[in-house]
Hints:
Helices cover 53% and strands 0% of the residues. The protein is mainly alpha-helical. Helix 1 packs antiparallel against helix 2.
Amino acid sequence: xxxxxxxxxxxxxxxxxxxxxxxxxxxxxxxxxxxxxxxxxxxxxxxxxxxxxxxxxxxxxxxxxxxxxxxxxxxxxxxxxxxxxxxxxxxxxxxxxxxxxxxxxxxxxxxxxxxxxxxxxxxxxxxxxxxxxxxxxxxxxxxxxxxxxx
Length: 150
């Protein structure tokens, strides 16, 4: 991870086709330290190590305060991005986080392709005022099932 927060990888790398939160993209990571779901915690660990390196210039209480904010900031940013990714653009609902969690769990349970699932969702039209949402839900269900059954 660079000082800008960008992930760097110079080793053997693989891409996640079927969604698996335990997926390890680096073939040299035998312990799962850098699994998909571990990324937020590893980024926090990197920030702790950066703060330690900056200790002569960065007071520890200031560093601790910043690091303590990290997970909340990360979770807000992640939720905002996932909302956009699944097309929830106009209104935030308290259930959005649960919807995203259940979508990812369903993707994991069915072995759905990570990228193609979101591409598939982008083909589902948004209902217009007065339009029958039932028809769109039926269309969406058929589209998603056709992708899962491939």
